[in-house]
From TrEMBL:
<feature type="transmembrane region" description="Helical">
    <location>
        <begin position="195"/>
        <end position="217"/>
    </location>
</feature>
<keyword id="KW-0812">Transmembrane</keyword>
<feature type="transmembrane region" description="Helical">
    <location>
        <begin position="79"/>
        <end position="96"/>
    </location>
</feature>
<dbReference type="GO" id="GO:0042907">
    <property type="term" value="F:xanthine transmembrane transporter activity"/>
</dbReference>
<dbReference type="InterPro" id="IPR006043">
    <property type="entry name" value="NCS2"/>
</dbReference>
<feature type="transmembrane region" description="Helical">
    <location>
        <begin position="344"/>
        <end position="361"/>
    </location>
</feature>
<keyword id="KW-1133">Transmembrane helix</keyword>
<dbReference type="InterPro" id="IPR017588">
    <property type="entry name" value="UacT-like"/>
</dbReference>
<feature type="transmembrane region" description="Helical">
    <location>
        <begin position="102"/>
        <end position="122"/>
    </location>
</feature>
<feature type="transmembrane region" description="Helical">
    <location>
        <begin position="129"/>
        <end position="151"/>
    </location>
</feature>
<dbReference type="GO" id="GO:0005886">
    <property type="term" value="C:plasma membrane"/>
</dbReference>
<dbReference type="Pfam" id="PF00860">
    <property type="entry name" value="Xan_ur_permease"/>
</dbReference>
<dbReference type="InterPro" id="IPR006042">
    <property type="entry name" value="Xan_ur_permease"/>
</dbReference>
<feature type="transmembrane region" description="Helical">
    <location>
        <begin position="229"/>
        <end position="249"/>
    </location>
</feature>
<keyword id="KW-0472">Membrane</keyword>
<keyword id="KW-0813">Transport</keyword>
<feature type="transmembrane region" description="Helical">
    <location>
        <begin position="49"/>
        <end position="67"/>
    </location>
</feature>
Length: 449
């Protein structure tokens, strides 16, 4: 990882803060928009309903991002976390929506979020199951699980006829080379904004080549007010059960993402900090349902932005939340970002996600060098990769099994925690009551309580 250029409590100059916030926006916006689009397509929603769902997702993600970064009393981890709609809920959402419509999805999400809210109070205990070896496995699995996504972006989208097209790979390689150059030889704002600079230059080249489709911008409304309870809400018992299962999986994944973020920011993540973060995820998802948004969770891909650039300021990412709110109110802005070709995002994404892998490897290097640790690492990463690389492995399993074990991050984390608990000679490390913060952070903490 780069040396930390801006720490968690630092406030970069306003122009730099805006550029760095846009950088996080570019990394997250596609994923945030993708979930409501997938749900809308599966449920055959009309255009106005699809637009309302996308706008709500952007707005909800932005509001919860601000709360997660800034903190409100016991809510919010106060780290640079970008929140967004999670693919963990897509399977459950489609199954509920097919029978009960979007109202069933939103009502089930609202009710089942109590699982995450209740789980937040047990995070100090759960934190004890994440020593260096386990945390290193989880961080590495986050990067390993995200890397195929970047590869698919670079190759012009999985399943398309143009997959692996030479021109797409050339664009992705060009952007990757730019990001490497800016990180390695850039100074100050150039190095810190390497991702956004690489994407902007790659985008400009694609515009000059005539391969950018501006149709989404022409079709998007300029301004749209949020529509609370636009779809209504209902509370089917089967839907609540399905969503509750997805929330349990999300607790595991989000815990791993927070631990990875701790590595990237140089902050020791305590059980109390995890409680605040998970509580924000749960309450945020319930509140998002009220404004017609699918559930939200912490985005792992933005950990790669922090890892690569060394910009750990939570105030930068809070501004990203503001930009997401604006994107929800002004859909034309989000539509403009959507026009960025996938290979451009793939070139930058490959670098970001690979840096998360490197951070996990460094953590594993600090763990105890023993046969026990090697077993935990080998088996956990092997199981996680099995699901990541061959998702069809679970095709014959019941739905609830696929829901729990469909994510390589979840499988790797659960295997590491289980092996660490069962194998003799359990690794131990001190668990702090609170992570170290600056005087400014302590002042924020006091004022928010």
């Amino acid at each position: 990882m780069n040396a930390v250029l801006y720490r968690v409590e630092d406030r970069p100059p306003t122009p730099m803060t805006l550029i760095l916030a846009v950088q996080h926006l570019l990394a997250a916006l596609g994923g945030i928009i993708a979930v409501p689009l997938v749900l809308a397509g599966a449920l055959h929603l009309d255009s106005p309903s699809t637009i309302a769902l996308v706008n709500a997702a952007l707005l909800g993600s932005g509001i919860v991002t601000i709360i997660q970064c800034k903190g409100v009393g016991p809510i919010g981890i106060r780290l640079p976390c970008v929140m967004g709609t999670s693919f963990t809920f897509v399977g459950a959402g489609i199954s509920v929506g097919m029978e009960h419509g979007v109202a069933g999805i939103l009502g089930s999400s609202m009710a089942a979020s109590l699982i995450m809210i209740a789980g937040s109070f047990f995070m100090p205990t759960i934190r004890k199951f994440f020593p260096h070896t386990v945390t290193g496995v989880v961080v590495a699995m986050i990067g390993l699980s995200l890397t195929p996504v970047a590869v698919d972006w670079a190759a012009q989208g999985m399943g398309g006829q143009a997959y692996g097209d030479l021109s797409s790979l050339a664009v992705a390689g060009f952007v990757l080379a730019l990001v490497i150059a800016f990180v390695q030889w850039g100074r100050g704002i150039v190095s810190a904004s390497a991702i956004v600079l690489g994407i902007l230059i790659g985008y400009a080249v694609c515009v000059l080549l005539g391969v950018v489709d501006f149709a989404p911008v022409r079709q998007a409304p300029v301004f749209a007010l949020p529509k609370p309870l636009f779809f209504g809400v209902s509370f089917p018992v089967s839907g609540i059960a399905a969503m509750a299962l997805a929330y349990l999986v999300t607790i595991v994944e989000t815990t791993g993402t927070f631990m990875a973020l701790g590595v990237a920011t140089g902050v020791d993540i305590s059980g109390k900090a995890l409680s605040r973060g998970i509580l924000c995820d749960g309450i945020g998802s319930a509140a998002a349902a009220l404004i017609s948004s699918p559930p939200v969770s912490t985005f792992a891909q933005n950990v790669g932005v922090v890892t690569l650039t060394g910009v750990a300021s939570r105030h930068v990412v809070a501004l990203t939340g503001v930009l997401l709110v604006l994107a929800g109110l002004f859909p034309v802005l989000g539509a403009l970002v959507v026009t960025i070709p996938q290979p451009v995002l793939g070139g930058a994404g490959l670098m970001m996600f690979a840096m998360i892998i490197a951070a996990g490897v460094r953590m594993l290097g600090k763990a105890a060098d023993s046969r026990r640790s090697s077993l935990i690492v080998a088996v956990s990463i092997g199981c996680g990769l099995a699901v990541t690389m061959r998702p069809s492995l679970l095709a014959q399993m019941p739905d609830f099994i696929r829901e729990i074990f469909g994510s390589g991050i979840t499988v790797g984390a659960m295997a590491a925690v289980l092996l660490n608990a069962l194998l003799p000679g359990q690794e131990r490390e001190p668990v702090h009551e609170e992570f170290p913060v600056s005087e400014n952070a302590e002042a924020v903490e006091r004022s928010s309580c």
